[in-house]
Write a structure and sequence with these properties.
By secondary structure, this protein is α+β, with helices and mostly antiparallel strands. It folds into 3 domains: about 45 residues; about 35 residues, no CATH class; about 60 residues. The chain is built from 4 helices and 3 strands. A hairpin with a 4-residue loop joins strand 1 and strand 2. The longest helix is centred in the N-terminal third of the chain and has 24 residues. The structure holds zinc ion (ZN).
Length: about 190
Amino acid sequence: MNHAQLTALGRALRLLGEHGEALGSDTPDAKLHEVKADVRRALELLEESVTAAKPTTRCPEHPNGPVDKGAPDLCLLCETRRRAARRDEFNGPAPNPQQPTEHPVQSRYGVRGDRPQPQQRWLPELWNGQSWQLCGTPRRDRREAELFIAAQRRAPRAAMAYRLVHEFTDYEVLRVWGTPVRVDIEPMGNL
Ligand SMILES: [Zn+2]
């Protein structure tokens, strides 16, 4: 129900209440006809509001939003938000990529904070007459991908059309074993 519908329906229902208050044995037929018209009007408004927005989720915030069958309230938007919150809980505060950490952890695999989070890439694609196909290396930088496509378009045997696809990869912690407590690394310590 949108705001305009809510306002109109509220007004119509309150009017019915007033009719009820004013009703008496001396109420003339003309008044009853007026009441009948107002009841009909309120019913129409109610039907509009109900059929226009049958909720798809049980979420009060996004009743008609996309559905996630696995979510307790069926709301994909809120479930995505909850998932991100759970992930932050597991990972601790997000590392600031601009500032190197005081004690860089040496690991042949690196730490997750070393990688862009979430990871995104830009894929140059060309139209081959039948479908879109990748026409160059996926780039980490959008500007670079656009320059690449611009160069491709100027080439002698350029394709009919090009497009830039944004690939977005998110990470999700599935399960944690043990308790990750932040420990200070001793200056001479060996990991
Ligand atoms: Zn929601």
